[in-house]
Amino acid sequence: MTETDFLFYLGVLLFCSGLMIVFTKKNALLILMGIELMLNAANLNLVVFNRQQTGMDGQLFALFVILVAVCEAAVGIAIILRVYHYYKSAVPDQVSDLKEHE
Amino acid sequence: MHQPASITSSLAFVIPEIILVVSICITLVLGLFLKQNKSAVLVLVTGVAMLTAICFVVWNWPHQPEPIFAGTLRTDDFAAFFRVLFLSGGSLTLFISLQKESATEYVILIQAIVLGACLLAMSMHFATVLVSLELVSLSGYVLAGFAFNKSSSEGSMKYFLMGSVATACLVYGVSLIYGITGTLDFSSQQFVDTLIQSQSGLILIAAFLILAAVLFKITAVPFHLWAPDVYQSAPTPVVAFLSVVPKLAGLVLFIKIVLAFNLFGQATLDWRVVIAGISILSILIGNLSALAQTNPKRMLAYSSIAQAGFLLAGVATLDLAGIHATMFYAVVFLLMNLLAFTTLHFFEKWKALPTMAHFAGLGRVAFIPASALVIALVALTGLPPTAGFTAKLLVFSSLWSAWADSGLTVLLILFIVGLLNTVVALYFYLKIPYYLFLKETPPGTASIKISFTGNLLVIILVIAIIWLFLNPGLLMGWINRITFVL
User: Fold this and answer.
1) pLDDT tens-digit readout, B223-244
2) pTM of the model
3) In chain A, which among 53-82 make CB contacts under 8 A with chain B?
4) Where are the domains of chain A?
5) Which CATH code of 1.10.10.60, 1.10.287.3510, 1.10.260.40, 3.10.690.10 fits the domain covering A3-87?
6) What is the DSSP string of B231-270?
7) What number is the ipTM of this complex?
């Protein structure tokens, strides 16, 4: 197994564990962490694959991803804080006033 | 290519977007200083900015396909068409919000979404796709919570959590594609060549991850779960906006990316089958779920999921006629959805309407908004004499000819499902008109006061919808001149 293969599989592992956290964890903040993991898996891929290329496209794109992730976390935590203010909970399962056939 | 000179020469092509950025800065500063008539002045400033931007796009018609900013964006007629659509959607939404006390942030966020959508329409590179898609999404998450109450915060959080997962999937899909092709520019020759040569199964995984994020924006099944909650809880003008501009922005991106992955018909997977499948599912699930709804906004949410199915039905043909039909549908969809939500907003301002039964007899006390709502719903069903009929007719006829050409059974199934669902849709769309006009007015109902500008906007939209039915040739002629090359 070459180094690139190894790093690619590491990325797959990171992405899958992130996705699993999103689906299994209850707390919204933990879901946010899972999302960050998925984004970092993509970053790892981009940087690793960039080594086979001549340009810097992949690394630059990874910078954009980091930037977007920061914005997303900022907006997300603000929204979760607001939900916490109303519901005294950040667990999406307990935050469920909106349902079918009210 | 990467010299500053190319950047400065590119600036001339994005003047509408620059106007929007400047207008965002101006509204930000004005919002700090204005005390009286704050919302009216801000809406006026942004309205003028958007109209100027529309004029610039129309003035430069026809747009030669021209890669700008080192090939990350490209101006062409297809993008320009949707830029006009997004800018008009944004200005119409601001016009509805004129009557409420809107904060500076509200106006800025609306402009940010329009800016993101315009850039998305021009994107030809995954970096610009990511940044502009996130501009649309992040502003959308915040806007969804703008009712500042309990349920609105909940809708906003659900939208945010699902949307972020979708973005993460998009980014991971893009990283895989980058590994396979070595380029992030999906319009480049290198992208097509390497994908044709490569037999890797990873391409499909990557393509599905990317398209999942885009379909999330279009609210196509199975990525529609957020829509009913958000539509029900967010303020109605925001819903009107979110159901139109981000959705159509997603549609533009979907068309571009699917055409890129289609590799001029040389792809191993027949994308027409995939799109037709998603379209069938969206139409069926959207319409059948809408049947059971009692909340009018929730019903319209499911209806807009079904409409997403119809928008995708034109794309499923993957030929120019189908995409032209979709573009016509997009214009009509913008008009009729904005009209439906605007009139709903007028009724809601007057009193809370948690169920459709609350509409009983309101047609007699508020004739203009009530009949406008009926016209919007008739158009959404797809019946004459509204442009909704013309749009559906165009989509279905392009589907029919695509089926006749290719003999692909799934297109015929989509055709039949679409036709049958128009009948199903009749049942739930006409529930509100039934309550409005055929039920007795409850005693003691005061008549609704709607401002002159409100009535004017409603009447303009109604005239546009009926005029496009009587005379679709002008718009269709304009659309038919738009050639689409990836």
Assistant:
1) 999 999 999 999 899 999 999 9
2) 0.94
3) 53, 57-58, 60-61, 64-65, 68, 71-72, 75-76, 78-80, 82
4) 3-87
5) 1.10.287.3510
6) HHHS-HHHHHHHTTHHHHHHHHHHHHHHHHHHGGGT-SS-
7) 0.95
